[in-house]
Design a protein that fits this description.
Strand 1 and strand 2 form a beta hairpin. This protein has one domain. The protein is 42% helix and 3% strand. A two-stranded antiparallel sheet has the order 1-2. By secondary structure, the chain is mainly alpha-helical. The protein contains 4 helices and 2 strands.
């Protein structure tokens, strides 16, 4: 029962972030660092939900395709990119790491990181 509540809470948080207008992030009201941190939080939540649903250990490392359904954009939806990434691809923007480790920004890890 507790697992179901955790999954519902995580999916609710992901849905709230996904419902945010896409063009609002980075429109001058948010810094690129804040937009990147929001993306990192979404990725971390998606990893947690994926691990819970698939009985993964903290040492297991999900792929981008593993977490895609948990990003709230469908199984073939877009993955986020760091607004400071000139290539604008997920692979050049973020490292997922294993389930027990927070995801990281590859572009500016010193300023774009989860606490």
């Amino acid at each position: 029962m507790t697992e179901v509540l955790v999954v519902v809470a995580v999916l609710g948080a992901i849905a709230a972030v996904v419902m945010w207008p896409k063009n609002h992030v980075g429109d001058g009201r948010r810094s690129p660092a804040n937009a990147c941190i929001i993306n990192l939080r979404m990725l971390d939540s998606a990893k947690a939900a994926c691990a819970l649903d698939n009985h993964k250990q903290s040492t297991d490392t999900p792929t981008a395709n593993d977490i895609r359904p948990y990003m709230g954009r469908g199984p073939k939806g877009e993955l986020p990119v760091c607004p400071s990434d000139r290539k604008q691809t997920f692979d050049t923007s973020y490292s997922l790491h294993n389930v027990g480790t927070k995801p990281a920004c590859k572009i500016n890890p010193a300023r774009h990181s989860l606490p």
